Amino acid sequence: MAVNEALFKRLTETPGVPGHEEQLRRIAREELGALTDEVWTDPLGNVIGRKRGRDDVRVMIAAHMDEIGFLVRHVDERGFLRLQPLGGGMMALNMNAQRVLVTTESGTALRGALQVGRRQGPPRPGETPSLPSPEEFFVDLGMSAEAVKAAVRVGDYVTMDRTFERVGDCYLTKAIDDRAGMLVMFEALRALRGHEATIFAVATTQEEVGLRGAAAAGAALNPTIMIAVDDCPAWDFPGNEPERAITRLGDGVAIKIMDGSLICHPLLVRHMRAIAEREGIAHQMEILPFGGTDAGAVQRLHGGVAAITLSIPCRYAHTVNEMASAADVEAAITLLARYLEEAHTGDYAL
Known about the structure:
This protein folds into two domains: about 5-65 and about 175-345, Zn peptidases (Aminopeptidase), CATH 3.40.630.10; about 70-160, CATH 2.40.30.40. It has an eight-stranded mixed sheet with strand order 1-2-12-3-13-16-14-15, with helices on both faces. By secondary structure, it is α+β, with helices and mostly antiparallel strands. The protein is built from eight helices and 17 strands. Helices cover about 25% and strands about 30% of the residues. The protein has helices spanning about 5-15, 20-35, 145-150, 175-190, 210-220, 265-280, 295-300, 325-340, and strands at about 40, 45-50, 55-65, 70-75, 80-85, 100-105, 110-115, 135-140, 155-160, 165, 170-175, 195-205, 225-235, 255-260, 285, 305-315, 320-325.
């Protein structure tokens, strides 16, 4: 099935960092309002849509709304902004000379330059250049100090500024992590041909700072099955040995076996793989020795929940040039939809 590129563009270009997902919430309510029987927002900001079904099989799907970014922690006397990173993984190597959007309390977006605060010019004798730390960066809004102080407050949030582009067979943009997961969740619901299980589709908050939204939603919803939809590294590019690739672009949706937050339920892994093989859905198996997804936060609730993650392979994660294959996104949508249609048949007793 074709990817809804207009929706994907809207999702990736909309700013939202941990704890400030309000603009993504509006999109999630709009999409889930058309795809589920009822929609609500919980106290942590998760948007939850329920498709009614059997009470003994309750499937929670989670895709997080937040992207890594920054908060304004200081406005200096010249109007330059200093930043507090939000979420891990933004390497200083990828930050310099980028454009950013500062979203103010009023919702106004101000475009600025993200630069490193170092003495300019050739190095002094004996000086050895080194990589900067995130704390050395500042944002220049191109405004007078008075105008900046009138518009920006400490606590306003900052995101990278990049447009969504189709490049060859792939998508290139910021925030594929995890707007691709949101897209897959929405489009799988749209592609459903029927279901018996109760389905909770949850656009979660604060994943990038500790899987917080998923933990809250999972505690309230008490699912019997948990499926996170997220990205995973595709290190299939120069500089990496082939055995370290983890996943490869174009090889299909990744069915996770484990990551740093969970070991996926083996019978659920087997069920997903059987569907993919039966339906001819391109797929690959993923073992990620670090990191985590929303499934890791829900797996240990209520005495244990059968949990798994479906991943979209992504090159250059946590940069402004994240890249995903259109075919892999399509495969993820199809696998999730086919699973939901038969989730009630799964027996995950160990």
